[in-house]
Write a structure and sequence with these properties.
By secondary structure, the chain is an alpha+beta fold. Bound molecules: adenosine monophosphate.
């Protein structure tokens, strides 16, 4: 981190950013009009727009008349051409600098989102909005550091030679992150080398070590998602005595072999027996309640996303942090970065994101059952449904919408797959609660498994039961986050016609087959990130699913319309299922996973 330049003025800097927010939120519609016009004029020559009969027009009416509202599958042939090396302007007139690999999947593989060089500036702008906002609520943060756990993930190259990697890996490897100028708000305890270390054990170890040895300076802690932060605490539970020894002696555990990491850490690490005593005392207590505030006593908040599926981690975070504020700063995706939370100290259940109208052109599809939002197979919208899309300024308070974006990098009227609810307004800009990701039933980390994938995996698994004349008569699933890492649980009620007992290894094979059938993000979580534990099948007593139905009906469900839920979340239902478990089996090993798309394997 370079020293502060003499003319650095934090107050002025913050004011400028807050003014920017005021300005763009007051002039939402003008800004959106300009953004669409810029995108369409920059890309007037691209094949996709010409294909849809747009010949340089940049007005909203013509755009909306001609351009279909699409999902990833609609542009997959175009994406594949780019990935295979076609450099003609297909979606965007500027060169696609890389593909950002989304945690959303298509055909079991990560979706590839095109991005252009200048998008990095837009993403950096969104990052730069967060701290001036938080500083209005939590003063003095510039006097301390942030202990943020940041990781890169593996990357691959498409057959046409374009790098494909997650958006954060791209950001951490960019000069925007590595050569960032002095800014007290990006003063992290982790040296860049520890973030950029490709070995996840060494990266986590060295980042925690640097965080521990600067513990008094840490004013805020965080990770992108709650699941990642909890993984760090779990790592600390397993490795604290090694870390403590390093703090005591001022040396680094020999398992850290990356020389650039060792050198960077050695610039910070000094023998500190007093701190080591504190770490030892606190970590060896039987309860880890409040461990964050005990080890990092000046921490004012935990910066992690706890909206959407991450809300399942709130109680665990509250426990470890002794109820420190959980701050969700931003809402973003590989397609585009969208918005920030302007009320960062609000309760997690009340978090809303203000979409920043300079990021892309936003449209909103009202959510109701007839427009495909709740269908499992996305389909094209008909003309009438297309006309239901509304502008950012026209959304209605309390209404839910599916987000549709048009980006500078060449996605036009693209359905992101997120459902948002209007919670309020900042000037003329709506603020949205994140409601859910469409169709996702199971998620532990960044994996998103939908019902169709689960059903397909089940179909593959039950073939192991056929030789025993057995089948699964009912099933449901549960994302169990009481274990660290969390894991998928399937509850099976069996129908047994044969007399041969089914050996445990058959159910273990079923577990593994399900894992092998799930998408690549799930398998990466199991194999590479170790952020998901082995899948578990719990066999329940006969009649359990009838009891589940009785319970749902007692709560008001209609007998005629009752369908077994393919995923359960409600605690009493999970308890009912758990109380009737007769056998449990875990996946005996990790499923197969390799970086990149399966079609590229021969090219890399
Ligand atoms: P990815 O494309 O892998 O970066 O994932 C982006 C998706 O993560 C979004 O479309 C959302 O579904 C989810 N996501 C991102 N930010 C948030 C947030 N603040 N709260 C809830 N979900 C989020």
């Amino acid at each position: 981190m370079p020293e502060a330049p003499r003319d650095y003025n934090l107050v002025e800097q913050n004011e400028k950013i807050l003014e920017f927010i005021e300005d763009v939120t007051a002039n939402v519609d003008q800004v959106q009009k300009r953004v669409l016009s810029e995108i369409l004029s920059n890309n007037a020559n691209v094949e996709y727009l010409k294909r849809h009969c747009l010949h340089g027009q940049t007005d909203r009416e013509t755009f909306k008349k001609h351009l279909p509202v699409i999902t990833y599958e609609d542009i997959q042939p175009d994406i594949n051409r780019i990935a295979n090396g076609d450099t003609s302007p297909i979606l965007c007139s500027k060169p696609i600098s890389e593909f950002l690999t989304s945690s959303g999947t298509s055909g079991g593989e990560r979706k590839l989102m095109p991005t252009i060089e200048e998008d990095q500036g837009r993403r950096s702008l969104l990052y730069s909005l967060q701290m001036p906002v938080i500083s209005m609520f939590v003063p003095g943060l510039e006097k301390g550091k942030g202990m943020y756990l940041m990781f890169i993930k593996s990357e691959a190259t498409t057959p046409g030679g374009i790098v494909a990697r997650p958006v954060l890996t791209s950001y951490y490897k960019s000069s925007y992150f590595q050569d960032r100028p002095y800014d007290p708000y990006t003063n992290y305890t982790s040296p860049n080398e520890t973030v950029l270390c490709p070995d996840s054990y060494q990266s986590m170890y060295s980042q925690l070590l640097c965080g521990l040895c600067q513990n008094k300076e840490v004013f805020r802690v965080g990770a992108v998602f709650a699941s990642g932060f909890i993984r760090a605490i779990r790592f600390l539970e397993k490795n604290w005595s090694l870390l403590c020894n390093d703090v005591r002696t001022g040396t680094i555990n020999p398992q850290i072999t990356d020389t650039s990491v060792r050198e960077a850490v050695m610039k910070i690490l000094k023998p500190d027996p007093k701190l080591a005593d504190l770490i030892q005392t606190e970590c060896s207590k039987s309860s880890w309640q409040g461990i964050i505030t005990r080890l990092w006593p000046n921490t004012k908040y935990v910066d992690v996303i706890v909206t959407g599926t991450m809300s399942q981690y709130i109680p665990t975070l509250d426990y470890y942090s002794n109820g420190l504020p959980l701050v969700c700063t931003m809402y973003a995706s590989s397609e585009c970065y969208f918005g920030v939370n302007l009320n960062p100290l609000c309760k997690p259940s009340e978090v809303s994101y203000t979409l920043i109208p300079t990021m892309c052109y936003f449209e909103f599809l009202p959510v109701n059952r007839s427009n495909g939002v709740n269908d499992h197979t996305p389909r094209s919208l008909n003309e009438k449904e297309k006309q239901e899309l509304v502008e950012l300024v026209d959304v209605k308070l309390g209404q839910e919408y599916e987000l549709v974006v048009t980006t500078y990098a060449g996605l036009y009227r693209y359905r992101v797959g997120d459902v948002l609810r209007v919670a309020g307004f900042k000037n003329k800009a709506p603020q949205f609660n994140f409601v859910c990701r469409k169709n996702v039933v199971l998620s532990i980390d960044s994996d998103k498994t939908d019902e169709v994938e689960l059903q397909n995996a089940m179909k593959n698994a039950v073939t192991h039961l056929v030789p025993f004349d057995a089948s699964v008569s009912e099933y449901t699933s549960y994302a169990d986050t009481t274990t660290i890492p969390g894991h998928y649980v399937l509850y099976w009620e069996l129908s047994l016609k044969g007399s041969t007992p089914i050996p445990p290894c058959v159910f273990e094979d079923c577990c593994l087959t399900i894992e092998e059938s799930l998408n690549s993000v799930y398998r990466q979580g199991r194999v590479s990130d170790k952020s998901i534990g082995p899948l578990e099948i719990k066999i329940v007593e006969q009649g359990t699913f009838d009891k589940l139905m009785d319970y749902a009906i007692s709560l008001g469900a209609s007998i005629n319309q009752y369908k077994t839920p393919r995923c359960v979340k409600f605690a009493p239902v999970v308890e009912l299922l758990n109380s009737r478990v007769v056998e449990k089996y875990f996946s005996p090993k990790c499923p197969k996973w390799v970086p990149g798309h399966k079609q590229w394997i021969n090219h890399n």
